[in-house]
Amino acid sequence: APGTGPKCPKCKTATHAKKTRNGNDYYFCGGCKGAWWPSREAAGKLGPKWDMRK
Questions:
Q1: How confident is the model at residue 43 (pLDDT cuts 50, 70, 90)?
Q2: For 13, 33, 46, 51, which has the most beta carbons within 10 A of its beta carbon?
Q3: Global confidence as pTM
């Protein structure tokens, strides 16, 4: 199911608002499995892609 967050820049699916273990907000796209940081400039927009490689 699409989320309620901003649309993913890659596949245009609405993202899910989530939190990291440290309590930072991020958005996860169920469509392409991408994770995005929120934009620092504009509320409700996505910022850079989060590279989740461990």
A1: confident
A2: 46
A3: 0.82
How far is the C-alpha of 34 from the C-alpha of 18, rounded, in Å? 12
Answer yes or no: are the C-beta atoms of 39 and 5 closer than 8 Å.
no
CA distance 14 to 30: 8
Question: Residue 16: phi, psi to the nearest 5?
Answer: -105, 130
DSSP class of residue 18? E
Phi/psi of residue 18, nearest 5 degrees: -135, 175
Closest of 5, 1, 2 to residue 36, by C-alpha: 5
Question: Do the beta carbons of residue 11 and residue 29 sit within 8 Å?
Answer: yes
- How far is the C-alpha of 21 from the C-alpha of 43, rounded, in Å? 22
